[in-house]
Amino acid sequence: MYVGRLLVVGPDLAAYRVSSRSFPNRQAVVREAGGTVTVEPTPDAPPSDNPYISYNCLRTVDTPAGEAVAIGNGSHVDPVAEKLGLGYPPRDALVTALHALDFEKDDYDTPRIAGVLGPDAASIGTVRRDALLVREVAEPTLVATYEEDSPTAFEFGADDAAAAARTAYDLEFEHAVCAAAVTREADEFDVAAVTPG
Prior knowledge:
Pfam family, one: IMP_cyclohyd
Protein name: IMP cyclohydrolase
CATH topology: Glutamine Phosphoribosylpyrophosphate, subunit 1, domain 1
Oligomer: single chain
Radius of gyration: 15 Å
Helix content: 10-25%
Function: Catalyzes the cyclization of 5-formylamidoimidazole-4-carboxamide ribonucleotide to IMP.
Organism: Haloglomus irregulare
Shape: globular
Number of domains: 1
Number of strands: 13
Strand order of the largest sheet: 3-4-5-6-7-8-9
Order of helices and strands: EEEEEEHHEEEEEHEE
Strand content: 35-45%
GO molecular function: IMP cyclohydrolase activity
CATH architecture: 4-Layer Sandwich
């Protein structure tokens, strides 16, 4: 089954996977001493003016309550991280950014999906043509851009970020391209990305 881009957020981990039929020539690159992961075209990718193929998919940020992570499938990750840095609670940061940017204005009205690992809680959200859904999660929860476009409990586990990124990449959904993940151990975040090939 093809679900497009997918996100799993649980109490102490989050994993994001790019799945694509149209733009498979992309990679996930860890930047800024491990604080940001960017999805971008590979060096051999054909030129494109599509605004949805390159973006920060994961950002760690210092907040007044402690370090947090914003993760998702597009340019809305940056405003979520900025709102967290200003002290917004995770729910408000997700709602504000998802509502402001809305679903992607492409041929498929692709939903935006996002999550937050805060100092004390995890949240997941999506905005699609017909709904804006944001909820705090106490167990791993999946949302995807197609087919699985409402947050649903999902069996997912990994001991560290590298294993979580690989697990997300290896999920039995079609057209995997690359993945990124973060895990939390006490007050520390571990970030990793995988781009096979």
